[in-house]
Design brief:
With 443 residues, the protein is α/β, with parallel strands linked by helices. The protein has helices at residues 4-15, 30-42, 46-70, 76-104, 109-116, 118-133, 160-166, 168-175, 201-212, 246-254, 265-271, 322-335, 359-368, 392-401, 429-441; strands at 22-24, 138-141, 148-149, 179-183, 186-189, 194-196, 218-222, 243-245, 275-279, 288-291, 302-316, 342-345, 349-355, 371-385, 408-414, 419-425. The chain has 15 helices and 16 strands. The strands form four sheets. Strands 12-13-11-14-16-15 form a six-stranded antiparallel beta sheet. Strand 5 and strand 6 (194-196) form a beta hairpin. The longest helix has 29 residues, at 76-104.
Length: 443
């Protein structure tokens, strides 16, 4: 949400709902700019960091002024004053955080979460105030009062029992005729520190709160008409999927689909609450309904892809027995809490595909004790989700037929999860994904 027209559209959708609870994400570009500002402050470039913050502040001020100009209301001056006071307060807190990061000359996970939460702290309050200008009884509630987590900064794990208890306060707000508006993505640890839930964490917040309230449905409103057979930004011929199971939608999110946070569907699934993915710019479109079980009748449901992948191959020393070798490889991954996207194994070697990053060096050091290690980077991962087992050979032939001149680094298939993975050069990822998608979904 980034302009007064979008906010107006969303508020009109909200006004047509019965007893809604609203979870709001940050405005466009804000979280990215906050991340950049924190990194600049840690590297000593505090003036550059403050320039980014000034642009964030001015953008939000302009958004409020524009919204109120297009929605005349007797209380607009009070609303404008309240919004400006909030902007000053939150941006003042951000400035103090950046100055502290600059003095420390490093960016701790705790401080990074505090900075990244600023976007939702701003947008939720301002959005609730704008609702009042449209005579909608929106009421801001700080997410820290509801979303309680552990202290795993950057990817905090929610305390669902405590969240369910705290969410009872929302029912009192709704009983009073108000619509709660809560910032997504962030919460509070048991030590009182701000935490974040990870990329697209606002969806996760919505699912957690929806489950706590035993909602009739959870709706994710975005800029596309549901979950597509692939990312429509890169695959022009991708099509929306009418229905998905919780399982397949989660797999899509995990393997790179950006519509949902990978953990979004777990709370909804536990309460058997349907999740809708809808388009705020085309609210009459069907969108995607995500439920417990779906019979699609299709050989493949969707194609996802991930950039910036690495492949690590560990070949055991002769002195290490096969079962002990495999156990220790996966123990190292568990110790470092590193998720793996694809695995090929033999008794004496393991090849894994995972996201590239700073953890690769640390993981490699752990593996050196087990055997010889080779690492290749600049790879891409293509994942086919919902593959029908009976058609695996046919799918493989169609995939390989779509990329005759492409060198494949790794292929893996998981029968239980119905996942088919292909690893290849990063530079070929998008074009190859487009070719495979068209071969599977358009032929």
């Amino acid at each position: 949400m980034n302009d007064h027209q979008t906010w107006t559209r969303v508020l009109e959708i909200i006004n047509g709902k019965t007893n809604p609870v609203i979870i709001v994400s940050a405005t466009a570009r804000t979280t990215r700019q906050l991340r950049e500002a924190a990194a600049l402050a840690a590297s000593g470039q505090v003036n550059e960091a403050q320039e980014l913050c000034t642009s964030i502040k001015e953008r939000h001020q302009e958004l409020i002024m524009s919204f109120l100009e297009h929605h005349p209301h007797p209380k607009n001056q009070l609303i404008a004053d309240s919004c400006q006071a909030r902007i000053n307060q939150v941006m003042g807190s951000l400035d103090k955080l950046l100055m502290y990061i600059n003095r420390q000359e490093k960016l701790s996970p705790q401080l990074k979460d505090a900075v990244l939460s600023i976007g939702e702290q701003l947008s939720a309050y301002l959005f609730a105030q704008c609702g009042l200008a449209m005579d909608i009884l929106t009421h801001y509630i700080d997410a820290r009062k509801i979303i309680r987590t552990d202290s795993e900064f950057g990817r905090a794990n929610p305390n669902t029992g405590l969240i369910y208890q705290k969410a009872l306060a929302l029912e009192s707000v709704m009983d009073g005729g108000f619509i709660p508006v809560i910032g997504g993505f962030y919460g509070e640890s048991d030590t009182g520190m701000i935490t974040t839930l990870g990329f697209e964490g606002s969806d996760y917040s919505a699912s957690l709160i929806g489950a706590a309230l035993q909602a009739d449905s959870i709706e994710i409103w975005t800029d596309v008409s549901g979950v597509y057979t692939s990312d429509p930004r890169f695959i022009p011929k991708a099509k929306p999927i009418a229905e998905l199971s919780y399982f397949d939608a989660t797999e899509m999110a995990y393997f790179g689909a950006r519509v949902l946070h990978p953990s979004t569907l777990k709370p909804a699934q536990e309460r058997n609450i349907p999740v809708w993915v809808k388009n705020m710019f085309a609210p009459d479109d069907h969108g995607t309904k995500i439920i417990r079980s779906v019979e699609s009748g299709k050989d493949v449901l969707a194609l996802s892809f991930k950039e910036n992948m690495a492949i690590i191959t560990i070949t055991a020393y002769e002195t290490l027995m096969g079962f002990d070798f495999l156990t220790r490889v996966f123990h190292a991954l568990q110790e470092l809490r590193i998720p793996v996207d694809a695995v090929n194994t033999t008794e004496s070697s393991v090849t894994i595909a995972l996201s590239d990053g700073a953890h690769i060096e640390q993981l490699t050091r752990s593996f050196i004790a087990l055997g010889t290690v080779s690492t290749t980077t600049h790879k891409g991962l293509i994942t086919l989700i919902g593959c029908t087992f009976d058609q695996t050979q046919t799918i493989k032939e169609r995939v390989l037929g779509a990329l005759p001149d492409v060198t494949i680094d790794m292929i893996s298939y998981t029968k239980e999860k119905r996942i088919f993975n292909v690893v290849l050069e990063h530079d070929l990822l998008v074009d190859t994904s487009r070719n495979i998608h068209d071969a599977l979904f358009l032929s």
